[in-house]
Amino acid sequence: MAAEQRPADTGTDESAWLAAYDPRAYTPVAVTVDVVALTLRHGSLHVLLVERAAPPYQGAWALPGGFLRAGKEDLDEAAVRELAEETGLHGTADAEAALSRIHLEQLGTYGNPDRDPRMHVVSVAYLAFAPDLPDPEAGSDAATAAWHPVTALDLRPRSGRSPATGVPADTHGGGVGGHTGPATEPTVAAPHAAETGPAPTALAFDHARILADGLDRARAKIEYSPLATAFLQHDFTIPELRAVYEAVWDERLHPGNFHRKVLSVPGFVDSTGTTTERGGTRGGPRARTYRAGDARLLHPALLRPTREDEIR
Amino acid sequence: MAAEQRPADTGTDESAWLAAYDPRAYTPVAVTVDVVALTLRHGSLHVLLVERAAPPYQGAWALPGGFLRAGKEDLDEAAVRELAEETGLHGTADAEAALSRIHLEQLGTYGNPDRDPRMHVVSVAYLAFAPDLPDPEAGSDAATAAWHPVTALDLRPRSGRSPATGVPADTHGGGVGGHTGPATEPTVAAPHAAETGPAPTALAFDHARILADGLDRARAKIEYSPLATAFLQHDFTIPELRAVYEAVWDERLHPGNFHRKVLSVPGFVDSTGTTTERGGTRGGPRARTYRAGDARLLHPALLRPTREDEIR
DNA sequence: CTAATAGTGTCTCTGAGACAGTATCTA
DNA sequence: TAGATACTGTCTCAGAGACACTATTAG
Question: Does residue A251 reach within 7 angstroms of strand C, measured from its CB?
Answer without folding.
Answer: no
